Automatic annotation (TrEMBL):
Organism: Duganella margarita
SUPFAM superfamilies given in the database record: NAD(P)-binding Rossmann-fold domains
One Pfam family matching this protein: NAD_binding_10
Protein name: NmrA family NAD(P)-binding protein
Residue ranges of domain NAD(P)-binding in the record: 19-188
Length: 299
C-alpha cells in the first residue's frame, strides 16, 4: 500500500531537484511534472539542458558559495543527487548546509545500498549521510541498489562478443531508475515528511548474477551471449583501454567487487510500499533496450 493512498491532496510545494538532468533526476522531473508543485532545477548551466519549459532553472556553482543560498530561496523540499566524483562529499554537504540555512523543510538524498562498503562511492554516501543526520531538518535517505541502466555500457561489448568483468558468480538486485524516481516523488509529496528522519532500501524484484544476465540476453536476442570472467586487475586494464579514465575505471571495478561479494543482492518490498506498484523487472528493461545489445544504438 503506498503511503500516500489515503492522504489528502498535497499543498503546492516548491521542490528543487539537484541533479535534474541525471538518470534519476530526469525521471523524477518527468513524473512530478503533472503534480501540483513548482519545480526548480539546480544546475551549473541553466538553459543548457533539455528540461521541460515548465521547470524553472537556477544556477548552482560550488566554487561560488553565494550561489547556493540564492538557488535555494523559497524552496520547501530538496531532492539531492550528485554524480560520482572526488568532490561529491564536499559538494553535497555544502548544498545540505545551504538548504538547512535557507529553511528547506525536507531533504531527500539519493544514496546507495552498500554502506558501509569502503569502496567509492559507497564510502562517500556514508560520510554525506552521517553529516545530514546531524542537521536539524526533515530528511529521507533513499538507498537504491545498482541501476539497471549500468548495463547500458555493456551494450557494445555484448554486440561485439567481448562482454565481461570481475563480478564472478556474485548476485545483485538491480533496480530501474524509474522506480527510484517514483519512490522519490512519493516521499517529496508526503505532507508529514518534514518530521521524518528515515532511510529506505530500494531494490528490484530479484537478484541476478552477470552470467544469468548473459543467459537472459541470449534468450531475448536469440543468440549466445557470454560473460567473460576477468580478474579485478584485468578488468581495470580493459576498462582503461576502452577509454575510461583511471578514476571511473576504479569506480567500475569497485562496483564489480561489490557484485562479486553479493553485497548488493538485498531483497525488499519498499518500492511497492511507497508507490503501490511492484518494481519493474530486469527482463522488461533488457527488452526495452535490446537495440543497445544488438549494436544498433549508443548508450
Amino acid at each position: 500500500m503506498p503511503i500516500l493512498q489515503n492522504a489528502p491532496a498535497a499543498s503546492r510545494f516548491n521542490i528543487a531537484v539537484a541533479g535534474a538532468t541525471g538518470r534519476v533526476g530526469s525521471a523524477l522531473v518527468a513524473c512530478l511534472a503533472t503534480e501540483l508543485v513548482d519545480l526548480i532545477a539546480l544546475t551549473r548551466t541553466p538553459g543548457a539542458g533539455s528540461l521541460p519549459a515548465s521547470v524553472a532553472q537556477r544556477a548552482v556553482d560550488f566554487d561560488v558559495s553565494a550561489s547556493l543560498p540564492a538557488a535555494l530561496e523559497g524552496v520547501d523540499r530538496l531532492f539531492l543527487a550528485h554524480g560520482s566524483s572526488p568532490r561529491q562529499v564536499e559538494n553535497e554537504i555544502a548544498l545540505i548546509d545551504a538548504a538547512v540555512a535557507a529553511g528547506v523543510g525536507h531533504i531527500v538524498k539519493l544514496s546507495a545500498i552498500g554502506i558501509p562498503l569502503q569502496l567509492h562511492p559507497f564510502d562517500w554516501h556514508e560520510r554525506i549521510e552521517a553529516h545530514l543526520a546531524t542537521c536539524d531538518v526533515g530528511y529521507t535517505m533513499l538507498r537504491p541498489t545498482t541501476f539497471m541502466s549500468v548495463l547500458a555500457r555493456s551494450g557494445k561489448p555484448v554486440a561485439n562478443g567481448n562482454w565481461g568483468g570481475a563480478a564472478g558468480e556474485g548476485k545483485v538486485n538491480l533496480i530501474d531508475v524509474r522506480d527510484v524516481a517514483d519512490a522519490a516523488k512519493t516521499v517529496l509529496l508526503e505532507e508529514a515528511s518534514t518530521t521524518w528522519q528515515r532511510a529506505f532500501h530500494l531494490t528490484g524484484t530479484r537478484a541476478w548474477s552477470m552470467p544469468e544476465v548473459a543467459a537472459e540476453l541470449s534468450r531475448l536476442l536469440g543468440r549466445t551471449v557470454t560473460y567473460r570472467q576477468r580478474s579485478f586487475a584485468e578488468q581495470r586494464e580493459w576498462l582503461i583501454a576502452s577509454g575510461l579514465t583511471e578514476f571511473m575505471a576504479g569506480v567500475a571495478v569497485g562496483l564489480d567487487r561489490a557484485f562479486y561479494q553479493s553485497a548488493l543482492r538485498e531483497d525488499t518490498s519498499t518500492i511497492e510500499f511507497l508507490t503501490g506498484h511492484t518494481p519493474r523487472t530486469l527482463t522488461d528493461w533488457l527488452s526495452e533496450n535490446l537495440s543497445l545489445f544488438r549494436g544498433e544504438a549508443v548508450a
